[in-house]
Amino acid sequence: MGDICQKAYGLNGRAFGGVFGFMYVLGLYVMQLLAMARIFETMTGLPLSASIIICSAIMIGYTWAGGILAVILTDALQFVILTMGLTICLVLILIDFGGLNALWSAVNALPDIGTKMSFTADWTTGALITFIFTYAIGEFLAPYYIQRYATAKDARQARISAVAFAVFFGIFAVSIPSVLGYASLVLNPDVGKDLALTTLIRDTMPIGLKGLLFGGLLAAVMSSGDSFLNNAALAYAKDVHGVWINKKITKYATLFMGISSILIALSYPDIFGLMVRVYYYWAPTMIVPLLVAIFAKDKIAPISGPIGMLFGIATALVWEIAFDNPLGLHYAIAGIIANILAMLISNQIFKIKPLTT
Questions:
Q1: Phi and psi for 133 in degrees, rounded to 5?
Q2: Most buried of 87, 137, 169, 313, CB within 10 angstroms?
Q3: Predicted confidence (pLDDT) per residue in 179-231, tens digit
Q4: pTM, rounded to two decimals
């Protein structure tokens, strides 16, 4: 992502984009680390703090040793385990309930189900729409996807892989977790959302298959977590350390990211809450500058990118913390609007100048 920012906004764009991109991916890695630790906690009975340290050590070990090649090779194996494990789990759960209709009847029979199954839950409609928008656009421009596109041997392979993943994700990764979530709601209505799926597997699956399913869940988390860890280390080494400190890329970046993530995870153990905040602050900071960098880099003054990033994040912080989302406008949307205006105004002031790097 730093390379894209540098082509449009120069070295300053790479530096600021690198800092914000690094913070974004590090937050996502902490989220995956917490998810893995919750699975490990359910499997072993160890406290969450010990599970966080053990799980982080596992991912740090092979990511530090093998880099992006280790990430891609392990992801391929983890993908197979995940797909097999969750498919088997779904089939067995539906057999136990007597089919999908029986499961749905059991869900509707739960007390206060209308509140639990509300489309917006305890969110406002504006907050939900904002999250969907920022998640969709944010994922499209996420640094770890950009990195994956760049590992393809050519543009055609990148396009085919992206479309195939989108089809798979839309069918498999959305439907199966949803059905399993409903089953957990029926069987374990008092379990917290972070432990819903792991508790369902622990309490309903037979020995042997239980191990395969926990392996599948760990594989799912690790396949994303190691990507985030590698990308955070790369962003820090090239775009933060390499620009702000010195150009010699530190080989200890992965280790530094891993230790930092442990400290953050121990102090902020809410998986879903962390995910929401990461996307809400990524959107007003980087979405607009990245879209411009990809589609209109020759029509914008280089200084406009860093200015837009700074105004976007500052507005989002002030809009949420100081004013508590006035006018019913979510702080992420307020930050995006401020980002756009800052880039447009600064572009008029500084005009387009030849970019020298």
A1: -65, -50
A2: 313
A3: 888 898 888 888 877 778 888 888 888 888 888 778 777 877 777 787 788 77
A4: 0.72
The CA-atom distances, in angstroms, between 217 and each of 83, 84, 269, 297, 317 are 10, 11, 18, 41, 35
Task: List CB contacts of 61: < 8 A, sequence separation 6 or more.
Answer: none
Give the pair of three-digit tokens for residue 15. Answer: 């530096």
Using DSSP, state whether 330 is helix, strand or coil: coil
Closest CA to 35 of 212, 164, 209, 225: 225
> In the numeric block, which tokens belong to residue 318?
């002030």
Contacts of 66 (CB under 8 A, 6+ apart): 73
208 sits in the region (left: phi over 0; alpha: psi -120 to 50; else beta) called: left
Which pairs count as long-range contacts for 130-139, CB under 8 Å and 24+ apart, including other chains?
A: 130/280, 130/330, 130/332, 130/333, 131/276, 131/279, 131/280, 133/283, 134/279, 134/280, 134/282, 134/283, 134/287, 134/332, 135/279, 137/283, 137/287, 138/279, 138/282, 138/283, 138/287
Residue 251, both tokens: 């080989």
Q: Return d(Cα 244, Cα 241) in angstroms, integer.
A: 5
Q: How far is it, in rounded angstroms, from Cα 227 to Cα 225? A: 5
Q: Please report where in the chains the tokens 């996807």 appear, as a residue.
A: 145
172: its two tokens: 């498999």
Alpha helices in 152-236 (DSSP H): 155-168, 174-187, 196-204, 209-234
DSSP annotation of 324: S
Dist. CA 2–CA 15, nearest whole Å: 7
